[in-house]
């Protein structure tokens, strides 16, 4: 099945570019509530499943043993901007595990925003692994390694106990076998396993509701969900989609972006999880898809409506800040969403 | 007609993302030699036609009156990195026209590369309109306005004599009517007119060969072509596709990128021009499409083959610089290209 055009980018009177994609909404029993596009092809979830990758940290008791607070748990689930607050929190997580940034194997990355990069440049510093958008996740992996008594060096390798723990949890949450033939290397050097979108949609329905889980895993999901929605700034940062949406919805939704146009999320009040992939990997389109889905599915207050309206049709501007066009849901996509429920 | 998948991005053993697109190769008589995808929908050419937008500068005598050299003519056709050499050359072009950067209406832009941005930050400077990737084109517009005796303020407006001159030349070169209903605003605030790809492919076949043109226009095309291929660093800069390809091909091809996944080019030895658009606007895919097209169409020496091989399948790396996948032409796209000639 072909992926339909879900998002358009306009310029003046015309559509300039088009983004296709696939999307699944599922409930916690794994039933597909709604789908669009090619949902059979395995998708690398990338950073969209960081919250699932953090489950062993909670279930092992490592999060409590290391005294990680909500902000730190949120950072473990984050693709952050590499702002000072993010880098500093990652350093503290490592300190709590008796480690330093030398232990991180995610590689260095410039902060996402020029103003944060400028602070480093003005201080004559280079970006380090603490600024990598995945540094919180990696600090959590290292904390887990310590509590498991596993070596910290090489914790990114697929055969390391930390990555094995995560793979098993992902298999249980998605209901998919995650094997070497569908394994790629993520940008931060850890394994990423591809699976059909419905597996991830189901996993996030369960993540948001706890339905069908053992008490221990349900509690782990609840703590991570609460940490992210209570500390949305730690999950991304200034000007970021995940932060703005979770901030506005105050606990009603969890959303998380992944590289190459992936989004996953939980909507506990409806019992739904969702997973989507923009075919071409564009984040601008995956964000519009997610915003449109939330706008159609949820009743909103004024603040929530304002945030979603801005994220559903973000403006495209000239370098002088004048409107030149917008990114927006394709009419057929909106019509299809309206048919839900 | 649907756009086929022309480019794939892989990760480990799987294709992670897919880019669709449309492509036309034409000769200078306007005959379509080869096409793929939806070639009927009008495309905003954006910066890919800067060389055509510079024709009035030459034909009016303004380039000679202002004593613009090859490097400056190349900068007039450029989407440059905003490196020191680019910003400085744009300032000199303005000085030659008796103006300063205050006259530029393109808006400010950070240099493309962090190391060039860092130089500004270390000097406690903000980026200005000279660093805008279009500053050379705008300096050329202002030079033309001066020689035409037109006001310099407002030179970006569709009704300004400079933009009217350009619109007429574009109509002649593409064989298309360019009217307000297909006009958008480019990122640098000037009008951009959408037209089918075959119009642009034909225009660049003519640009590269001069066939069918008046002597004055043919000479203008030749001077701009020569300027770009002689000074490819001014057209883009360090690490950039257009610079590397034109540098390696030493006059055999002209290529130019445009925002939202557009590329245009001339291959005079074959009498061909081409124009392509990645449906979703991705530059990474438009570059691979262009490199694949050149690799199939042209006999190459060792250096040319090396540059194209790298640009046809650029590596996707982790933040530690380890290979994670690649961007590459889709097998069906390569097979279709092989069928040419």
From TrEMBL, chains A, B:
| Source species, domain of life | Bacteria
| InterPro entries to which the protein is assigned, alphabetical | Asparaginase_II (IPR010349)
Family annotation (PANTHER family): L-ASPARAGINASE, PUTATIVE (AFU_ORTHOLOGUE AFUA_3G11890)-RELATED (PTHR42110)
- Recorded protein name is Asparaginase
Organism of this sequence: Roseibium aquae
């Amino acid at each position: 099945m072909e992926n339909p055009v879900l998002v358009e980018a306009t310029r003046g009177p015309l559509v300039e570019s088009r983004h296709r994609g696939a999307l699944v909404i599922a409930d916690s029993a794994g039933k597909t509530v709604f789908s669009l596009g090619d949902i059979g092809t395995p998708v690398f979830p990338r950073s969209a499943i960081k919250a699932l990758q953090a489950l062993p940290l909670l279930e092992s008791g490592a999060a409590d043993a290391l005294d990680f607070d909500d902000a730190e748990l949120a950072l473990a689930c984050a693709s952050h901007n590499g702002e000072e607050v993010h880098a500093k929190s990652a350093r503290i997580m490592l300190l709590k595990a008796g480690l330093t940034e030398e232990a991180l194997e995610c590689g260095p990355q410039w902060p996402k925003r020029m103003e944060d990069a400028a602070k480093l440049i003005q201080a004559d510093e280079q970006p380090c692994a603490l600024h990598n958008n995945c540094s919180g996740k990696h600090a959590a992996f290292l904390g887990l390694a310590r509590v498991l008594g596993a070596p910290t060096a090489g914790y990114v390798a697929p055969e390391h106990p930390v990555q094995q723990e995560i793979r098993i949890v992902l298999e249980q949450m998605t209901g998919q076998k995650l094997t070497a033939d569908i394994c790629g290397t993520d940008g931060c050097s850890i394994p990423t396993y591809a699976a059909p979108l419905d597996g991830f949609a189901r996993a996030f329905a369960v993540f948001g509701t706890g339905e069908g889980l053992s008490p221990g895993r349900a509690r782990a999901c609840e703590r991570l969900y609460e940490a992210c929605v209570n500390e949305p700034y730690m999950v991304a940062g200034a000007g970021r989609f995940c932060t703005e949406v979770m901030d506005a919805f105050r606990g009603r939704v969890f959303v998380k972006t992944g590289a190459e146009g992936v989004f996953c999320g939980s909507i506990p009040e409806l019992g739904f999880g969702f997973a989507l992939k923009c075919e071409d990997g564009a984040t601008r389109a995956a964000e519009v898809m997610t915003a449109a889905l939330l706008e159609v599915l949820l009743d909103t207050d004024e603040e929530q409506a304002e945030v979603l309206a801005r994220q559903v049709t973000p403006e495209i501007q000239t370098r002088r800040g004048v409107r030149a066009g917008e990114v927006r849901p394709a009419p057929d996509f909106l019509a299809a969403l309206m048919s839900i429920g």
